[in-house]
Amino acid sequence: MNSITRYAALVTSGLMLISGVTYFVIKNWAQSEDPFSVVNHPFEPLALKTHVLVGPVLIFIFGLLFQSHVSKKLLGGSTRGRVGGVLAGVLFSCSVLSGYSLQTLVDSWWRGTLVYVHLVSGGGFCAVFVFHYYFTRRQGRERVRTETETERLAA
Q1: Distances from the Cα of 87 to the Cαs of 6, 65, 99, 120, 153, in angstroms?
Q2: With contact defined as beta carbons under 8 Å apart, do 97 and 118 qualify?
Q3: DSSP state of 66
Q4: Are residues 129 and 90 in the same domain?
């Protein structure tokens, strides 16, 4: 996996998290002074549009990640970071499916249920993805450091 793909995944995931949290806070906790207003805050449409438009970019980037990183790790037998990576993939899939379903379903019970599924899976994905990225990078640096020390002692 190259560094451009890695940082693109981090940036777009961050944009999705920030826009999603912003939209959730505005939608649920902001109060409009106008009783006839459709939006609670002037930034509400911007937050929703950003969230909806960055979503396909994130899906594309994770397709690249699957091709260049996930498939090689799963087929190569590497176990480092596998639990976190698989969990991030499952939560990402749930978040994508619930996000697209929220845009198409009109029944209030399904929409209410999918909001919670989307919140839990999206928030869980962000948390697991950050931990997966941080801890596997740290483990890799520690492994290189240990191998370097072993080679130095052997020489």
Answers
A1: 18, 15, 18, 13, 38
A2: no
A3: I
A4: yes
Please calculate the CA angle 102-130-45 and round it to the nearest 5 degrees.
35
What are the tens digits of pLDDT across the range 58-93? 999 999 988 887 777 777 777 777 788 889 999 999
Tell me the C-alpha distance between 136 and 143, whole Å.
10
DSSP at 41:
S
Task: State both tokens at 120.
Answer: 């839990």
Q: Is residue 70 domain-resident? A: no
Amino acid code (one letter) for 116: Y
- Supply the range of the domain harboring residue 23: 1-62
Are 10 and 66 spatial neighbours (Cβ–Cβ below 8 Å)? Answer: no
- Which helix H or strand E contains 46, and what residues bound it? helix 44-65
Q: Are residues 8 and 50 in the same domain?
A: yes
Q: Could you tell me the pTM of the whole model?
A: 0.80
d(CA 8, CA 93): 18
d(CA 65, CA 67): 5
Q: Cα–chain-centroid distance for residue 116? A: 16
